[in-house]
Amino acid sequence: QVQLVESGGDLVQPGGSLRLSCTVFGSIVSSNTMAWYRQAPGKEREFVARITRLGIINYADSVKGRFTISRDNAKNMAYLQMNSLKPEDTAVYYCTRNFESWGQGTQVTVSS
After folding, report:
1. Which strand (E) or helix (H) includes residue 23?
2. Which end of the chain has less Cβ packing within 10 Å, N or C?
3. Rounded Cα distance, 112 and 110, in Å
């Protein structure tokens, strides 16, 4: 059974940074596409970033240049480094493996 556990969400001021982590159990990160999605209150879940097993990376236009997705094969983890955070980045962030298995989410709040 595949399990994903996100962590790292917090309250941060605009312009600040956070790094989200996704620990994967029961599957190998390097053999799958790992992605991050987010869902703000009252809105649909939206794509943020993905990294394929071949290392191809894609970002949503709204986060391009500010967010960086990565993975650590030795630790079997995926990360989302978020810089220059804006209030509109406030959401619950979810990690997914192959868009099939999902974590429980971690709350990111950007506010002064």
Report:
1. strand 18-25
2. N
3. 7
Please write the tens of the pLDDT for every residue from 9-51.
999 999 999 999 999 998 888 889 999 999 999 999 999 999 9
Would the CA dihedral through 15, 46, 34, 11 be positive or negative?
positive
How high is the mean pLDDT of the chain? 96
- The DSSP annotation for 24-38 comes to EESS-GGGS-EEEEE
For residue 46, the surrounding DSSP H or E stretch is strand 46-51
SS (H, E, C) 69-98: EEEECCCCEEEEEECCCCHHHCEEEEEEEC
**DSSP-derived secondary structure letter, 103:** -
What whole-number distance in Å separates Cα of residue 112 and Cα of residue 13? Answer: 5
> For residue 30, what pLDDT is reported?
87
The C-alpha atoms of residue 61 and residue 9 are separated, in whole angstroms, by 21
pLDDT, mean of residues 45-71: 97
